[in-house]
Amino acid sequence: MPMPATELAWDYPDVFCIPLVVTAAQIDSYGHVNNAVYLQWLTDCAWAHSAAVGLPEEVCVAMGRGMAVRTVHIDLLAAAYEGDELFVGDWLSSNDRRLRATRIFQILNAGTGQCLLRGHVDYVCLNLTNGRPSRMPAEFVERYAVTLRE
Length: 150
Fold this sequence. Notes:
The protein is 21% helix and 35% strand. By secondary structure, it is an alpha+beta fold. A 5-stranded antiparallel sheet has the order 1-3-4-5-2, with helices on one face. The mean pLDDT is 96.
C-alpha cells in the first residue's frame, strides 16, 4: 500500500509535492521511465507550486514575465516502472529577488519510500516579449519566497 506524502522521508521539511502514477506511455524500450519524463515531472511540479502561490502560467503570461530554466542538475538514483505511485516534491532554495531563483527537487516512490531522483533547477526571470533577462516583478519576489535554507 502506498504511503501518504507526509509519511515519506523527504530530505527537507515543508515539501510542496504532487502525486503521479507512471503510465505505459512514459516507459522506454528498457522497460522503465524514460529519462526525459523526469524533467517533465519536475516542470509539472514547479508549475503546480507556482499556481499554488498564485502565479499560474496564464498569470505569468499576462504579466509578460516568466521564470525560464537556466541550468538543470539531476541525479537519477533508481528507476520507476509502469504503475508506480510517486510523489514529486520541491522547495525554493534561493531567490536573489532580482533575476534568479533555484528549486530543489526530489522524487519518492510512494510504495517503497525509495528516493528515485534528487536535483535542482536554476531559473532566470525573462521578459516574455523580447526573451531577455528582466528584473522580477514584485509578485515574483513575494510569492517565490525561499522555503528552504540549506
